[in-house]
Each structure stands twice: as C-alpha cells, then as structure tokens.
From TrEMBL:
InterPro entries cross-referenced by the UniProt entry: ADH-like_C, ADH-like_N, GroES-like_sf, NAD(P)-bd_dom_sf
Boundaries of every Alcohol dehydrogenase-like C-terminal domain copy: 171-311
GO molecular function: oxidoreductase activity
Domain of life, per lineage: Bacteria
Keyword Coiled coil: no
Protein name: Alcohol dehydrogenase catalytic domain-containing protein
Residues of the Alcohol dehydrogenase-like N-terminal domain: 22-132
A Pfam family this chain is assigned to: ADH_zinc_N
Lineage: Bacteria, Bacillati, Actinomycetota, Actinomycetes, Frankiales
Keywords, ordered alphabetically: Oxidoreductase
Length: 362
C-alpha cells in the first residue's frame, strides 16, 4: 500500500507492506484521517515514548510506522476468529486501540498497528462502530479529538459557581469548549494568540475570547466572573458564594503551566492536558501559596469516546468548524509542517484515496 511512512525521524510517501489482520482484527481502507499534535509528539520526541511504561506506544526508528489515530475506514476483510458482524464495505471508526495476538498498541503508534496515514489499516472488530450514511467521514473521524475535551470537562465535575477558562484553542481546546457548551455551562472564556481559532471557539460556544498579546486572560476572567467583587483572600475564609476559576490547559509548551500558576486566581483548579514531551518546571511554592489544584492527563475513557461519536452521528455535536485543510497522501509531509505552526488550522484532514469529498455515503 501507499502511505506516509515515518522512518528514521522523517516522513516520506512511498510503498510499504500491506497490513494483514490477525485474530479479532479487520482490514479497513482508510477514507479520512486527521493530523493530531500527538502524531507530532510521537515523531519528534521518541524519548517520551521510551519513558512510558504502558507499552501502548512502540517507536522504532529503523522500522516503518504509519501514524494516524483519528480515522474513518471502510471494511475490506476480516481476520481469523472474527464474527464478521458488519458487512464488507461498511464505513467504520473505532477507539484507536489494536488488540490481537501481540501486545495492545495505540493505532498509529507502532509498526504493528498502522494508522490512517496509509491506504490500509488494522482495526479491532469488537471496538469498531458503523458510521451512519448521513455523517461525513471527516466529521466522524474527529470523534477521538472531541472525546478528549469531553473527558476533561467530565473529570472537572464543574459546579454551579465554577467559571471555566480554556487556555489554547487548538482542536482539543476547542473540543473542550464544545463539551462545556453541551452542558449549558456559561460563561466560557478562551485564550489563544490565533485570532481565527478564537473565532472558531465562538462558533463552538465560547462567550468571551482574548489574545494574551492584548490582555491577561486572568484579568478578563476576574472581570467576567467577579464583576467587580473581591477575589479570594490570601488569608481567612473565602466567600462560599464566590466564583471559582477552573483552567483547562491545552497548549503543551514549556512555561505555559507555570504562567497559569503565576497569573491565575487563588484557589484555581487546573486540568492540564498539554504535557510538553520534553518536560516542564513549575513554581510549586507559588502554587502552594495560592492553593492551586493541578490534575494531569489521562483519557479519554470509552464512555467519552463512544458518547462523543454518538453525539456527532445524532447531530448534537457539529465538529466541522475545526477542519481547516484537506490533503491527499502526497500532501502529508508538508501538512505536518503546517500542523506544527501555531497559526495553522486546528485540524488537517488526510484523504488517502485522494477523494475531494468524503461526505454522505463515503
């Protein structure tokens, strides 16, 4: 098959071996796949993979790896020990986990688990779900990205006095905005340097947006949430009726988390999804004095993933505003460079077959 192949730290489009489905697996023809920041982290920071003890990621510089874990495919054939419960030709998507004879792997993050940057990929039969005919492939492929925002918002367990501030309006930050809106949360504040992404945030439900180049997001939060009242005191009992700041961090660059700690309101809760692969340093003493609570990573859980897919298919969640560019396989190397830029589109979609439109029954 043709694929955008990662090897020796670089991606080139060429022929590579066709994947063969093992026990419990099926072979699918890729229709649509998105480029995620995690693909860039996997490619650019293999040391982060080496430090992970889960075994889900499996980087080998000297072996072909086909990335891509946000996808929709069409069933081509079934491997041994499968039920064949969906007809060949059915459009499907799946939680991006490959289960079979070998170790469990994240799809697109191992030579044995080729992802959607190629013409063919392997899926776990028990995890796949059919994509209804009326749902465009590009939108169903974004279930994974929007499930991450759903996970963080669910884990935040926002109370009636919590006022969220989303730092970073990439696809995952935008997915959190959508998850907040679906819950009827308001106001929703979003900060990003990219003005076009802030406009997308508004389309997905943000009520207030700000570029940190223009003004402190934390000053905006105080203006909107406190409405002229005093913030939480350094000493003494806090007003139980006072709004609480909940920051969702979706940037993933060194220094961002510490900047939040320095600028945020006392008693802020931070849910950090960014996690720069090279590590970070924070002012723990400042965090302690402010009573900051920080929760890191994880998810999405299956309930978030499949619930998000159901919402997209039912029309309750429109993910199309985040799609900014579509390329074929030959365009993947350049598209990866665009995805690295802070001013690039929130999501770039890959159509391995070169189709101009994969909506409707495709």
């Amino acid at each position: 098959m043709r694929a955008a192949v990662l090897r020796d730290g670089r991606v080139e489009v060429r022929e590579t071996a066709d994947p063969v489905p093992g026990p419990g697996q099926l072979l699918a023809r890729t229709l649509s796949c998105a480029i995620c920041a995690s693909d860039l982290h996997f490619m650019d920071h293999p040391e982060g993979v080496a430090a992970d003890d889960s075994g889900l990621w499996d980087y080998h510089a000297d072996r072909d790896i086909v990335m891509g874990h946000e996808f929709v495919g069409e069933i081509v054939s079934y491997g041994p020990g499968t039920e064949g419960r969906l007809p060949v030709g059915t459009r499907v998507t799946s939680l991006p986990v490959l289960v079979g004879a070998g170790p469990v792997r994240i799809i697109g993050c191992s030579p044995e688990a080729p992802g959607g940057f190629g013409e063919l990929m392997l899926l776990t039969e028990s995890l796949v779900r059919a994509v209804p005919e009326h749902v465009p492939s590009d939108q169903a492929a974004l279930a994974d990205a929007f499930a991450v925002g759903e996970y963080y918002v669910r884990r935040a367990a926002l109370g009636p006095r919590d006022v969220p501030l989303v730092i970073g309006a990439g696809a995952i930050g935008l997915s959190a905005v959508a998850a907040l809106r679906r819950r009827g949360v308001g106001p929703i504040l979003v900060a990003d340097y990219n003005t076009s992404r802030l406009e997308t945030a508004k389309a997905l439900g943000a009520t207030h947006t700000i570029s940190p180049a223009d003004r402190s997001p934390y000053d905006l939060w105080r203006e909107v949430a406190l409405e002229g009242r005093s913030g939480r005191p350094a000493f003494g009992a806090a007003d139980p009726e006072a709004p609480q700041c909940v920051v969702f961090e979706f940037v993933g660059l060194p220094g961002v988390l510490d900047g939040i700690i320095q600028g945020c309101e006392r008693g802020t809760r931070i849910l950090s999804a960014g996690g720069p692969p090279e590590g970070d340093r924070i002012s723990s003493m400042v965090a302690k004095r402010k009573g900051v609570n920080i929760q890191f990573g994880g998810g999405p859980d299956p309930e978030d993933w499949y619930g998000t897919l159901e919402a997209i298919c039912a029309g309750g969640l429109d993910v199309s505003p985040v799609i900014g560019l579509t390329v074929d396989l030959d365009g993947v190397p350049d598209a990866l460079q665009v995805a690295r830029r802070a001013d690039g589109p929130a999501r770039i979609m890959i159509h391995p077959a070169g189709d101009a439109d994969l909506g409707g029954t495709r």
